[in-house]
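Hello,

Our lab assistant flagged a job as stuck in the queue for most of the afternoon. It eventually completed. Since we weren't sure the result was trustworthy after the delay, we are filing this so someone can double-check. Below is the sequence as submitted and the structure that was eventually returned. Let us know if re-running is recommended.
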Amino acid sequence: MKVIIPVAGKGTRLKPHTEKRQKCLLPVAGKPVLDHILEPLIRQGFDDIVLVCGHLDQQLKDYVKKFNARISFVFQEKPLGLGHAVFQGLKSIEDPALIQLGDVIYDIDFRAFCRKGNHRIAINQVPDPERFGVVKIKNNQVEEVIEKPKNPPTNFAMVGLYFFPIQRPLWEAIKYLIDNEITSDSEIQLADALDLMVKSGENITVEYCNHWYDCGVPETLLSTNRELLKPSGENILGSNILEPVYLGENTKIINSTIGPNVTIMDDVTITNSIISDSIVLWKAKIDGKNLNGSIIEEGS
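-- returned structure --
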């Protein structure tokens, strides 16, 4: 089955870190977000994967060579919205497709989510529904989809996972938005296409997803790191390691306290510092700092 993963965005909410590195290649719990996305999909037999790329596309192409799967690429030339990005990977055919956002990690049975039946979207209740596409539902059926409403009618948000047993209805809905220049916030939105599908008589059911981890903004990247980290079992003479902590290769920790909830990537040097609840990117050098709730810049 085809899996479409849009990873074309510039990750503006995670700057300056996304100026050097594609957003989905930023790490949580010791490895890039994209690893957390692709590994369970491939393990569960989803090996026809389409990455919709744009910003730093060559970096992505080089990186995914390590995965044992058929990974192809389509290019979104202009950042015209999530619906437009997804459209690049769709076809007007009867084949199914799973769509997963490139900044959300799921701990679910993807095969069960893609079972036969209606179109299906993953939802959950959130405290800030105005940041999401929101659905109105009745008897587990979608009645309306609203993109980032200022006054949300519900707090049931789409959490970035969608299954379509037939691609054509979604392809047609997005094409209609593109052809008629129907946008929300000047972008072609997937939420608007889903709402159009509902209004045209397509049945879309909801699936409640409790185990999802947003990586789209600094706060959620750090909270996902906290959720997914596991103890390293490391001991470093002269320093304190407060688990859970991930220590990358060729790290040097001198007279410092690290943890809890810290990911440190490769080739990092930390001296005379206290670091907790943070992510330290590759080749960073930290001396004499007390850091909490931080993402430390790559090579800084």
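-- support follow-up --
The delay was a queue issue, not a problem with the job. The result is valid. The mean pLDDT is 95. The chain has two domains: 2-222, 231-296.
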